[in-house]
Amino acid sequence: MSNRGTGAGGRGGPGRGRGGPPYGGGPPRGGPGGGGRGYDNRGRGGPPGGGGGRGGFGGPVIFNEGAPAQLPPRLNDSTQQALIASFKNLPVTPERPLRPGYGTRGTPVTLRANFFAVRLPKGPVYRYTVEITPKKGLGDRKARIFQLLERSPLCQPHLPYIAHDKSERLVSARKLPDPLDIQLRYTDFDGVAVTADSPTYVVSVKFLDELKAQDMTRYLDGNTQSRDYDPLPLVSSLNLVLQQHAQRNGVRVGNSRFFFPSSNATPKIQFRPDLYLKQGFFVSLRPGFKQLMVNVNACMTAFVEPGNLADRLLQFSESSRGSLPTLSKAMIRSIKVRTLHLHHRKKLNAIGTTTARNTFFDCQEFGGKTSVEQFFKKKYKITLKHPTDLPVVDLGNGKNRQWIPAELCEILDGCAYRDKVDIVKIASVRPRVAGEAITQTGFPVLGLSPPAPQLLASGFDVAVDTEMAVVPGRELPPPSVQYRGNPIRANNGSWNIVDLKFRVGGVAQAWWVLALKEEWPPNRGPPPFVIRDNQDQRLKDLVMGFKAKLQSAGVNIPNGLPKLLPIVTMPREFDDPGRLRALAIIRNGLKSTLDECEQRKEPRPGFMLVLLEKRDNYIYPGIKRIGDVELGIMTLHMQLPKVLGDSEHGNKRDQYLSNVALKVNTKLGGINHLLEDNAMKWLRKKKTIMVGIDVTHPGPGSKEGSPSIAAVVASTDDNFVQFPASLRIQKGKEEMVEGLSEMLVERLLLYERKNKVLPSRMFVYRDGVSEGQFDIVIESELPAMLLAFKKLSTPARGSKPYRPTLSIIICGKRHHAKFFATSSQYADKNGNTRPGTIVDKGVTGVFDFDFYLQAHAGLQGFVKSTHYTVVYDENSLTADEIQQGTHDTSYLYARATKAVSLIPAAYYADLACERGRCYLNDFLASDAATTAGGQGSLPKGFLDRKAEKEERERRVFEAAEKAWGQGLHDNVKERMFYI
C-alpha cells in the first residue's frame, strides 16, 4: 500500500514513510509508519514493514507565493545604467575594478533575497572605546561587567541611545560625557551579595570619533566622489545597534550569529546524549545600491547539554578502558561551568589525571600539603561522592592550576560546541520553511519586529523593513557537454553517461588491487562482505567487473586480472590506537611488492584500488600518505558494502563503479568530457592558464601548533580539465599563502612543458578569503604572483620580461545571502531556484564587480550560490564574459556528471588541501583529550604558561614539518592525485 502523502504527509503504510506533516511521510512522532518529526518535519521513518514510501511534498513550495513581487525603483534599468555611466568619469585601475556593466545573458527572473531595507539614522553616530581596569583576572568577566554597567545609575540615563559589544566597543546616538568613568563592584550572579572581597572595576568610556550618515548616503547613491569612502566603520557601528537585543538576550556564536538556548521560539533537537541542536539567526548589515540592508538568515549549531560535569564524565567512563574518564579536547574547550560551592562562572581548562583523593597542593590554611578531597571537607564541609573514581578538573586562570572536583561543577546552558558536527541533513530545510523561519521566528527573537522599534537602542531612530528585498535575476542556459560521440545537453544541471565513452581515455600499463580486512574477535564472525583471500571469487568478479567498466568507458588498461596483492589482515583498532601497526604492515607489503616489480622489470602500477570494509579515520588518510608521499602510487578506495551488496542493488553498484571510473581516468591524465567550443571561447582567445588557490587550517581538535596547508592548482592546456597541484605547509591559521610565488612557478613550468610556451593570460580563482581580507590579497598575494612572473623572465625566454595579464576572482561560499523564487515558474520541484541562476543587482556592491552564481542544482535543503568578486583585472573582463564563463566552466568538474557549486579550479584547490590533511593526519585529526597532571605547581622553567604554550606549539610545528618532509612523490606531482 502506498499512501504517498498529500499536504498532510503520507502515513507510511505499514512501512517507511519519511517525516511528518505537512512535508513528508509518516506521523510526526514515529510509530508504525515513520520516524520522529525532526527539523523541517522530516524525521526518518523506521520499521516495521516495508510499504510506505515518501509522503508527498504537500502545500506550497514557494515562500510567500502570491504576494506582490515588484522591483523597487532603485533597480530599474535607467537608474542602473546611469550608475555604470558615471563610472566612466573615474580612472580605470586593475585593483578593485569598478563594475564594467551588468550581465544581460539569460532569461530574466524575479527573486526575493533575505535582505531587508534599513532606515539610516538622521544624526551622527558617536564611537567610543571601552577600557576596563584592572585588566588582571578580567578573563571572561567582561560580559557580566557590561551587564552591571547597564544597571549603574551613571549609565542608565544613556541606555536608550547606546549600544555595545560587551567587550571594548560602544556607540551612541548622542554625545556622552567625556571622560565617563564608572566604578563597579563585581559579582558573578544576580542575588549574590556584594562583600568587601568583591573585586572593583573601573569602566572608562572614551570618545573615538563621529560618523555622519550623510557620508554613507552619498556612497550608497554611487556618488563617484565617494568611491574611496569606507562604509565599514558605520556598518559595524549600526550592527551593534541592530544586534543589541540579540546580544543581551541570546548567545553569540562566531561573527553575527545569535542563538537563544533558553527560548521556546525554536525547538531543541537532541543530537547526542551530550549535545543538542538549536536554530539561531545571522544578522548583519550590508551596503547596496541606494539602500542599506540587513542580511538575516537562519542557521543551526550544537550546544553542550547542561548538567553536572561528573555525570558527563560518568557517561563516558565505559570507554575509558579502566583509566579515569575524560572528555575530548573539543568538548573541554566548549564548556563553561558554575561552581556549586562558590557560584563562580569559570571556563573548563583541562581534565586532570588524578582523583580528588590523590591530588595534592600546598595549603597554608590547613598546615601544608592537602588533598583536594580534604580541602573541600575542611573548608566547605562537603563530602565528595566521587573522591576516587573521577578526576579533578582545572578551572584556573591560565597561570595557576585550580583543581576542583567535577561533581562541584555545573555545565552552564548555552555552551556552543567548538568542533565540527555533521548536521547537514538535520539543518537542511526547503526554501519556504527557511523564509518563514526568518520572517516569523527570526525577526521577533532578534528584536526586529514591530511594534517598532523593539531595538533596545531606540534612540538611534533605526528602522527595519519586514518585507524581503525583491531583486532581478537571470537563468543562464547550460552548455553542451561532449564525450566521445554526440554532445549532451544537461538537464537541471546534470546528465547521464550510460553507454558513453570518455573524451580521452587515460593509460595505465598496470594496476594493483589491495583488499584490507579487520581482525575480528573469535566470538564474532566477520560481516558477509569481507574478502577472505585474493583467490576469493567475489574479489575476482568485482575486479573484472570494474575492469570492464573502465574499458567500456575508454580507459586504456591491460586485459586480464590486475595484480591482486595478498589480503592484509589489520590488527583490531582496540589493540592498535591510531592504526600504526596496520599501516606499517600495509607500507612494508607495498614496498616489498614494488621492489619485486623493479627486479622483474615489471611496470609500476598506474593506480592501486584499495578495498575497505569501512571508511576509517586512520587507514584512509594513512594509505593516501603512503601512496602520494612515500611510494608514488595513486590510490582509489572502494567500500566493500557498496560493491558486494545484494543483486537488487545492481544499479547502485553500477553507478558507484562509474563514479570511481571518473576518478581513475582523471588521475591517469584522461579527459572525461569537454564543453562545446562556444562555451570555451572566453578562455581560448589567448593562451590562458586558470589557477585555483585555497588554504585549509587546523581545526578545534588538532594539536596546537599544527600548520595550515596551502594548495595551488592550475590547468595545463586549452581543455582546462587537468589541474595538477602544488602543496605547502605554513604557520597555522594564516590565510594568506606564504609559498605562493614558488608554487606558481611550479605550475607555470609544467604548463610550459606541456605547451612549449608560457600562457599570456592568467585567471586566478581564490577560495577561502573573507570580504575583510580582499585588500590583503592585493597587498600580499598579488606581489607574490608578480614575483613568480619575474622569476620566469629569463634570457632563454626572450628579451621581454614575462608578464601575463592577470585577473583575480575571489570565490565566497561562507556568505548568508539566500535567493527565493517568487513563482513556481522560476523554481524546481522543491522550491529552489534553478541551475544557472545569477544575481548581480540589488544586493551586490555599489562599486564592486561582483555577482552571485548558482550553477548547480540543490540536492537537499536550500540551495546556496557562490559569491564571486573580481578584485584585480588586467584582462578587461565584461560582466557577461566572467558570469557566463564561470557558469559554463562549472560543468567541467572531472569527477561528476553535473555542474558544481564552485568553479572547478577553486574546487580542486579545496580537494588538494583536504588531501594534504591526510599527510598530517596525526596532527590535524588528533582529538586526544586535554589532560593535565594533578600537581598544583608548574614544572620548573615553565612558570610562564604563555611561554610554555608557545614552546609546545613550536615543537608541534617542527614535528609536522619533519612529517611533511619533501612533500609529494615525483611520480604523482604532474597528476591529479587528489581527485
Summarize the structure in words:
By secondary structure, the protein is of the alpha+beta class. Among the domains are: 124-211; 307-411, paz domain; 505-659, Rossmann fold (3-Layer(aba) Sandwich), CATH 3.40.50; 682-811 and 904-928 and 951-979, Ribonuclease H-like superfamily/Ribonuclease H (Nucleotidyltransferase, domain 5, 2-Layer Sandwich), CATH 3.30.420. It is 26% helix and 22% strand. It has 22 helices and 41 strands. Strand 8 (251-252) and strand 9 (257-259) form a beta hairpin. The longest helix is centred in the middle third of the chain and has 20 residues, at 580-599. The protein is globular, with a radius of gyration of 31 Å.
What helical percentage do the residues reach? 25-40%
- Described by its quaternary structure, the protein is single chain
| CATH level 1 class label of the domain at 682-811 and 904-928 and 951-979 | Alpha Beta
From the spread of the alpha carbons, the general shape counts as: globular
At the fourth CATH level, what is the homologous superfamily of the domain at 682-811 and 904-928 and 951-979? Ribonuclease H-like superfamily/Ribonuclease H
CATH architecture assignment name of the domain at 682-811 and 904-928 and 951-979: 2-Layer Sandwich
Low-confidence stretches: 1-57, 933-943
Q: Tally the helices: what do you get?
A: 22
Rg, nearest Å? 31 Å
Beta strand %: 15-25%
CATH topology heading of the domain at 682-811 and 904-928 and 951-979: Nucleotidyltransferase, domain 5
Counting DSSP E segments of at least 2 residues, the number of strands comes to 41
Report the biggest beta sheet as strand number plus sense, adding barrel if it closes: 11 strands, mixed
- Average predicted local confidence, pLDDT: 90
Distance between the termini: 44 Å
Identify the strand order in the major beta sheet: 34-33-32-35-36-40-39-38-23-1-37
> Helix/strand/pairing class, anyone?
alpha+beta
Domain Piwi: 607-921
InterPro entries: ArgoL1 (IPR014811), ArgoL2 (IPR032472), Argonaute_N (IPR032474), PAZ_dom (IPR003100), PAZ_dom_sf (IPR036085), Piwi (IPR003165), Piwi_ago-like (IPR045246), RNaseH-like_sf (IPR012337)
Domain PAZ: 312-413
GO molecular function, one term: RNA binding
